[in-house]
Amino acid sequence: MNWELLLWLLALCALLLLVVQLLRFLRADGDLTLLWAEWQGRRPEWELTDMVVWVTGASSGIGEELAYQLSKLGVSLVLSARRVHELERVKRRCLENGNLKEKDILVLPLDLTDTGSHEAATEAVLQEFGRIDILVNNGGISQRSLCMDTSLDVYRKLIELNYLGTVSLTKCVLPHMIERKQGKIVTVNSILGIISAPLSTGYCASKHALRVRLLKLNFNGLRTELAAYPGITVSNICPGPVQSNIVQNSLAGEVTKTIANNGDQSHKMTTSRCVRLMLISMANDLKEVWISQQPFLLVTYLWQYIWGRKGLRTLRMVWMQTLLILKSLRQNVTEKSSCTFQATGGRNGKHENSNLLMLLNNQRLICDFTF
């Protein structure tokens, strides 16, 4: 077979494969690592059965749906939020539709902003079930208001609830996991912890703090501190728009005001699909996952790897590698040209690589493209 034809066929196959993967990505609702885990990874039905799972923010939205799906896996559930009557409603439905009995579910009212109560709450869970296998930090609140129209108290509450409350509860549960040398800490963050959006400056700041400060500094540092405890894993879940009451319960310009209207949610991911992907992430101990439909997922990829700081760092690294290659190439060309010049006796004082050398020696050209 003609080698040129074979190469063309291989190139065509590679192009078709690239197109297929692009089409699959355009239909994706999770990052590539997560979708690979869904296809080839461990099943939640295998990994999470018989565990004790503590879910905060379990009275509605993602936390509520998480309780329903976990109840079908045969786990022991701890449901926490401020609204006790809503927690009791979620518990009744878990008992009706799940595989749990009354003794398998503990309703534990909890205010994340009341950090002084977190130690006692942790002791209550340990007294009831004897252990905590998974802590799901899902509790939080959003915001919908212009920055200029938003009270400082709103920003303060967002930080205290979304960030400090999560840190406090994690610190209370962690010693128990260290003692047992195993456990999972799962934090439900947001795509808005990666990118920014108008009307949500305070919410974006709190989620960014949770991701950058807690995950990258505290939790990555925590992973280093817990190197002797490989059984303890830390995960960061970043959902995009999901069908829930998060907009309805969002703070407006004042702490006492909420939006009280969810608006059209037809374009958002269903809560059941979001939670299913979360369970897959938990079963496979993924460090960070993005759960969102298009175009939000594509925007997140572009922001993370092209427009954001990490993207600039990536481009800088690629450019520095290019500079090293150019430097090596210039050195090789110079050596070969020197040998050619000597072999020809220096006739005409030129060599065939002079134009290339001129380009490679143009330092300003190189410097102008250096970040």
Write out key terms for the chains shown.
all-trans-retinol dehydrogenase (NADP+) activity; globular; single chain; SDR_family_member_7; 7 strands; NAD(P)-bd_dom_sf; 371 residues; Dehydrogenase/reductase 7; Rossmann fold; 7-stranded parallel beta sheet; alpha/beta
Structural summary, described in words:
With 371 residues, the chain is α/β, with parallel strands linked by helices. The protein has one domain: Rossmann fold, CATH 3.40.50. Helix content is 54%, strand content 9%. The chain contains 13 helices and seven strands. The chain has a seven-stranded parallel β-sheet, sandwiched between helices. Strand 4, helix 7 and strand 5 form a beta-alpha-beta unit. Helix 4 runs parallel beside helix 5 and helix 7 runs parallel beside helix 8. The protein is globular and about 75 Å long. The two termini are 48 Å apart. The relative contact order is 0.11. The C terminus is likely disordered. One of its GO terms (cellular component) is endoplasmic reticulum membrane. This is Dehydrogenase/reductase 7. GO terms for molecular function: all-trans-retinol dehydrogenase (NADP+) activity; carbonyl reductase (NADPH) activity. It holds the Pfam family adh_short.
